[in-house]
Specification:
Rossmann fold; single chain; alpha/beta; 50% helix; binds NADP nicotinamide-adenine-dinucleotide phosphate; globular
Length: 254
């Protein structure tokens, strides 16, 4: 049986943990990252029971040098098959529309964008050299149209979407696959803390199954659930003043 090596950043969160459990099986080695040691260690136990080999690493992903050296070190030892750049945070303008602080904005971009770029930079040389490997970038349906309550988050996820689309077409002829995942609402700490209604809320296990299926088919854009995906996409193509009106009516206004 072919050995499979999978990296997941942000594996201690709702979607990341569900992905780890979804892929955990004999013949699979998981490299799981997060900040919380105890959560990582419990997750590793669950994945080992399912037959996977597991290595964990706990550090703040804003330390891009540490991120780079961790991924360099794994890439030297193993041929990575799938790398999920999944760790992420959300910030919002607050209940009284006070606004996001500069510290929050910098922290968000260090995690949601710069750490993703650093992840790709670290794993890409080995993947390109052997003409094989798959990079899965976690964007969001919020990437389609900026949301008034989460402008920086929307911007960070729009950047990931554009980056992933570009990477995919650049690297496809070399045999390296890239997929952009755009979830709607998936039950997690981040999702609970997000302001606004949460239609078509999914469980992380459902989301992980769907992501795994579509990653296996190498779909360019893995956006779900269907009704919310369609709605968010439409918001991005209609006139901005009409999408502002709709967002306000649907209680996503500031
Ligand atoms: N849930 C949704 O509705 C939804 C929708 C669209 C997109 N997404 C995207 O899906 C991804 C996973 O989100 P989630 O819902 O699973 O959120 P979550 O449960 O809050 O998990 C976030 C993960 O990111 C890690 N993380 C955050 N800041 C970090 C830092 N400074 N250093 C290291 N790790 C850090 C967390 O680690 P620790 O907890 O150990 O600190 C955790 O593992 C994110 O990129 C998010 O933007 C989620």
């Amino acid at each position: 049986m072919k050995e499979t090596h999978i990296v997941i950043t942000g594996a201690t969160g709702g979607i990341g943990a569900a992905l780890a459990i979804e892929y955990a099986a004999p013949g699979v080695t998981l490299f799981l990252h997060g900040r919380r040691h105890n959560v990582l260690s419990n997750l590793a136990d669950v994945c080992r029971i399912a037959g996977a080999a597991v290595e964990t690493k706990a550090f703040d992903i804003r330390d891009h040098e540490q991120l780079h050296s961790w991924l360099d070190e794994i890439s030297l030892r193993f041929e990575l098959d799938i790398v999920f750049a999944n760790a992420g945070v959300n910030i919002n303008i607050g209940p009284q529309s006070k606004g996001e602080t500069w510290n929050e904005i910098q922290g968000l971009f260090d995690i949601n964008l710069r750490a993703v770029l650093a992840t790709v930079q670290a794993v890409l040389p080995a993947m390109r050299a052997r003409g094989k490997g798959q990079i899965v970038l976690m964007s969001s349906l919020a990437a389609y149209r900026g949301l008034p309550m989460t402008p920086s988050y929307s911007a960070s996820k729009a950047a990931i979407k554009a980056y992933g689309e570009g990477l995919r077409d650049w690297l496809a002829p070399e045999g390296v696959k890239v997929n952009v995942v755009m979830p709607g609402y998936v039950e997690s700490k981040m999702c609970r803390e997000m302001p606004g209604p949460k239609p078509f809320l999914m469980q992380p296990e459902q989301a992980a199954k769907l992501i795994r299926r579509k990653v296996a088919k190498n779909r360019p854009r893995i956006s779900f659930p269907f009704p919310l995906n369609l709605g968010c996409w439409l918001l991005s193509v209609i006139h901005p003043s009409l999408s502002s009106f709709i967002l306000r009516r649907m209680k996503y206004g500031a």
